[in-house]
Design a protein that fits this description.
Blueprint (H helix, E strand, L loop, with lengths): L11 E10 L7 H16 L2 H8 L3 E5 L3 E6 L4 H13 L8 E14 L5 E4 L1 H11 L6 E4 H7 L9 E8 L5 E7 L11 H4 L28 E4 L3 E2 L7 H16 L5 E2 L2 H4 L9 H8 L3 E10 L2 E10 L5 E10 L3 H16 L5 H8 L6 H16 L5 H17 L4 H18 L7 H10 L4 H13 L3 H14 L4 H13 L3 H14 L4 H13 L3 H21 L4 H13 L3 H14 L4 H14 L3 H12 L4 H9 L10 H17 L1
Parallel strand pairs: 4-6, 9-11, 9-12, 10-12
Antiparallel strand pairs: 1-3, 1-4, 2-3, 4-5, 6-8, 7-8, 12-13, 13-14
Helix pairs in contact: 7-10, 7-12, 12-13, 13-14, 14-15, 14-16, 14-26, 15-16, 16-17, 16-18, 17-18, 18-19, 19-20, 20-21, 20-22, 21-22, 22-23, 22-24, 23-24, 24-25, 26-27
């Protein structure tokens, strides 16, 4: 369907996203046009927008200071689109936008220019919902919120604001939608001006309408700060981090709680914190902090739940147990928090919290070490992947039914085969074993998608990644896999969506940030590419401050330096890294990208690429065949000869 609604359309239920620029009318005329151009650019970058437009299932109606976007398939479409736009707007702080979503009827009308356009209560209500918000807000009508509440993945992000008065004295029931990376958690100004009619009761906030003026922080929401490692051994950090992450995961399964993501919570790691300040900054009602001491087969955990508004203790406890009791202890802490907050724990949520990948503490300890290595390492680092396999192989020797450990083995084996042509069957058997043990393990579906993609079985890979995203849309590993998969399928704008989320979910992930440089450069968005380069460089420098010999960080960091116009410094990094870690193929590959695409040094790029092509695995070869960073080399006879030789070698090896 084109931008204008076809005349034969009379009346149907659609899903409307209405958005406008706050304070637009007060701007000068030339400023107004610049803002509209920026907004159009951000909206067009949305993968949901592009997909709906490509399928002729989107209507676009300009409104002067914004637009109405009308979707046909489901209420999730305008909401997903709004989240993507909100994330995109992070790069335009001077562009204040608010959004409203409603599902309702529209009909065709003919305007003064004799063109068919849209009108109806569906559009009008979406605009009224939007009018209730301030800059950054994504507000939903009650009808849309109730549709989304049928899906567990949306529940943590829906915050009932109750009824608000709009034009002509009518009322709309509004929900605020926000995540850690999108939307605005603050109470809309219209609600702040209204005094609350009563104090909030003990009923879960998401199970009842909020009273007018009820502050968002009075809802049941929590930030679990990283537990301090009190073991006297820095190498035990993985264990205290693992405990913190598992408590976050457990509490996230409670639909009546909004839990701040691991990535946001861990930004406070190792810093002195003021609990009231943290609660105000994150707009949460409560904060959990604690410490872990592990030694001689014993574990001591202290935990305290603090009211963010008064800085008073709601609950506190110290546990001193045998290390073998760690799983029961985690369950105990999670239940104690739920009880202290007086939220309802549904039977299936209780089962989900109690479900563990293993009951063996030794296997769990090994898996935590491996998980930490994956989270803080780089996918293309062969030494890291070999260490992960050794740790997880030992874990599954202890407990052969440990699905999470099998999935991590599959990931490391896939990466070794892809990059270095090592890793046996590329992880397929391990992935299948993980899924046999737990068919709902999102990471296992994600790694299987990557494995299938390596074999160019793209349709099967797409089905697997869609399952993974449905099971756990907030998994950093799943989003990163989705980004790589869409990149290999040359669907760059979709790839951007997932890499952006992976970057937001894990502050140490310089690899996904580096991929964003490539994607944004390829689609011609220089500003976004520069922003991605700044993130990549900052993360690489943070890694190098602790590990000066990390070649992978220098590989992505040099590419970022080249994008930022610091070519000489980029070449200095390359020279140093090649002396330290000459066999790091992914590092060398990233140097090639910087030289070819950003420093415009074709001969140096080809010299750098030659030794890599002689050793790289099939996955990296296939990546090179479609990587837009290598387009400046693609027609060079020497590049063609090296690529052909690498493909022949890979065929003989397989």
């Amino acid at each position: 369907m084109p931008s204008e609604i076809k005349r034969e359309v009379t009346l149907e239920i659609v899903h409307v996203l209405f958005l406008d620029i706050v304070g637009y009318s007060k701007r000068l005329t030339d400023e107004q046009q610049a803002l509209i151009d920026q907004l159009n650019q951000v909206v067009r970058n949305s993968a949901v927008f592009q997909t709906a437009e490509g399928a002729d299932r989107l209507i676009k109606i300009p409104t002067g200071d914004g637009m109405a976007l009308i979707f046909y398939n489901s209420p999730e479409q305008p909401v997903e689109c709004a989240l993507e736009i909100s994330r995109g707007l992070k790069g335009f702080p001077e562009l204040p936008v608010r959004m409203g979503v409603h599902s309702g009827p529209v009909s065709a009308v003919t305007d003064l220019n004799d063109r068919t356009n849209a009108a109806g209560i569906g559009i009008n209500v979406a605009q009224r919902v939007m009018d209730c918000g301030d800059s950054g807000h994504i507000l939903l009508s009650k009808r849309v919120a109730e549709d989304l509440q049928q899906y567990g993945r949306w529940r943590p992000y829906l915050h009932d604001l109750g009824e608000m008065e709009v034009k002509h004295g009518s009322q709309v029931h509004v929900f605020n939608l926000y995540t850690d990376g999108a939307g605005n958690p603050d109470l809309p100004e219209k609600l702040r001006q209204v005094k609350p009619t009563r104090r909030p009761d003990s009923t879960p906030a998401q199970a009842r309408p909020a009273q007018k003026g009820e502050a968002a922080r009075e809802r049941m929401s929590i930030c679990v700060l990283p537990f301090a490692n009190m073991s006297g051994d820095a190498e035990q950090e993985y264990f205290s981090d693992g405990i913190s992450e598992d408590i976050i995961t457990d509490l996230s399964k409670v639909s009546a709680l909004h839990v701040i993501s691991r990535n946001t919570a861990f930004t406070f790691k190792g810093k002195p914190v003021d609990v009231r300040q943290v609660a105000g900054q994150l707009n949460v009602s409560h904060v959990l902090e604690g410490s872990v001491r592990k030694a001689a087969g014993r574990v001591r955990i202290t935990a305290q739940l603090i009211d963010g508004s008064s800085d008073s203790h709601v609950w506190a406890e110290r546990y001193d147990r045998d290390l073998n009791d760690i799983f029961a202890l985690q369950d105990e802490i999670s239940r104690a928090i739920v009880d202290a907050l007086k939220v309802k724990l549904l039977p299936e949520e209780k089962k989900a919290i109690e479900r563990r990948g293993t009951e063996n503490v030794d296997a769990y300890n090994l898996y935590l070490m491996a998980r930490q290595s994956y989270a803080t390492g780089f996918e293309g680092d062969g030494r890291v992947n070999e260490a992960i396999i050794r740790l997880c192989r030992r874990a599954v020797e202890i407990d052969s039914n440990y699905a999470e450990a099998w999935a991590l083995i599959a990931m490391a084996e896939m990466l070794l085969r892809s990059t270095f042509d090592r890793g046996g069957d590329g992880g397929l058997a391990a992935a299948e074993r993980a899924l046999e043990l737990n068919a709902d393990l999102a990471e296992a579906h994600a790694v299987k998608a990557r494995i299938l993609s390596e074999e160019k079985r793209h349709d099967e890979a797409s089905r697997e990644i869609e399952i993974a995203l449905r099971l756990d849309p907030e998994s950093q590993q799943v989003n990163k896999c989705a980004g790589v998969l869409r990149f290999r399928q040359q669907r760059l704008k979709e790839s951007i969506r997932y890499f952006e989320k992976a970057v937001a979910l894990e502050e140490g992930d310089f690899g996904s940030a580096g991929m964003l440089i490539t994607c944004y450069t390829a689609i011609g968005n220089r500003e976004a590419a520069r922003r991605a380069a700044e993130i990549t460089l900052a993360r690489a420098e943070k890694v190098l401050a602790h590990d000066p010999n990390n070649g992978s960080a220098m590989g992505h960091g040099s590419d970022a330096l080249a994008v930022l116009g610091k070519g000489e410094r980029a070449k200095e990094w390359m020279g140093r890294a090649l002396l330290i870690d000459p066999e790091n193929l992914s590092m060398r590959y990233n140097f090639v990208c910087a030289l070819a695409n950003h420093l415009k040094d074709t001969e140096a790029a080809l010299e750098m690429l030659g030794p890599a092509f002689e050793k790289m695995g099939t996955g990296l070869i296939n990546h090179a065949k479609i990587d837009p960073d290598l387009d400046p080399l693609r027609e060079h006879p020497r590049f063609k000869a090296m690529l052909a030789a690498a493909e022949r070698r890979a065929e003989l090896t397989s």
